[in-house]
């Protein structure tokens, strides 16, 4: 039962971006970032059904941690449901394919971080807001005082640099 003294809508509005970003980061490893919104929704429903008995020190920390846990639950169940049980019909090398995919994603992530580290703060902000948090280009442009096409150019330049660095091998 939800506690009527807690303004859940206001908490959601205030912390949804952080919750979504955390859930998306957890789900990225499983290739299921499409479930990030579901993880945030599940986190909110869970907290509304069982609110904390005392006000937490930080609502943001509680909401983000709950969203991460829900995302982790989803990532684990998505991963497990995609894997076939090992049997005589399924080659035992399937786990090698999964490990290779994970390693490839980790290498790409490391390359992307290195590319972004060489860029200025504004470029990193644009990339984080548009690509990681999936915010509308027009919204980010308005906040930074540039045009939406400039935001698109920045994102395209960074993605091209990351692709080139990945193809080059780092």
Automatic annotation (TrEMBL):
TM spans (from-to): none
Matches recorded under InterPro entries: Fimbrial_Adhesin_Reg, RNA_pol_sigma-70-like, RNA_pol_sigma-70_dom, RNA_pol_sigma70_r2, RNA_pol_sigma_r2, RNA_pol_sigma_r3/r4-like, TrfB
Gene3D superfamilies: 1.10.10.2690, 1.10.1740.10
Keywords: DNA-binding, Plasmid, Sigma factor, Transcription, Transcription regulation
Residue ranges of every copy of the RNA polymerase sigma-70 region domain listed in the record: 11-76
The UniProt record lists the keyword ATP-binding: no
Coiled coil residues, start to end: none
The keyword Transcription is assigned to this record: yes
Domain TrfB transcriptional repressor protein, first and last residues per copy: 113-162
Family: Belongs to the sigma-70 factor family. ECF subfamily.
Name of the featured protein: Sigma-70 family RNA polymerase sigma factor
Organism: Microbacterium schleiferi
């Amino acid at each position: 039962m939800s506690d009527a003294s807690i303004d859940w809508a206001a908490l959601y509005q205030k912390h949804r971006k952080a919750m979504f970003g955390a859930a998306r980061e957890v789900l990225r490893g499983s290739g299921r970032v499409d479930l990030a919104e579901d993880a945030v929704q599940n986190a909110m429903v869970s907290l509304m059904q069982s609110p904390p008995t005392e006000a937490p020190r930080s609502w943001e920390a509680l909401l983000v941690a709950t969203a991460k846990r829900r995302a982790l639950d989803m990532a684990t169940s998505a991963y497990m449901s995609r894997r076939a049980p090992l049997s005589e019909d399924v080659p035992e090398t399937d786990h090698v394919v999964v490990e290779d995919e994970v390693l490839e994603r980790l290498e790409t992530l490391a390359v992307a971080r290195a590319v972004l580290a060489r860029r200025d703060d504004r470029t990193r902000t644009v990339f984080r807001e548009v690509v990681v948090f999936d915010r509308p280009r027009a919204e980010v442009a308005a906040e930074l005082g540039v045009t939406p096409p400039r935001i698109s150019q920045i994102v395209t330049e960074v993605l091209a640099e990351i692709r080139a660095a990945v193809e080059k091998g780092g």
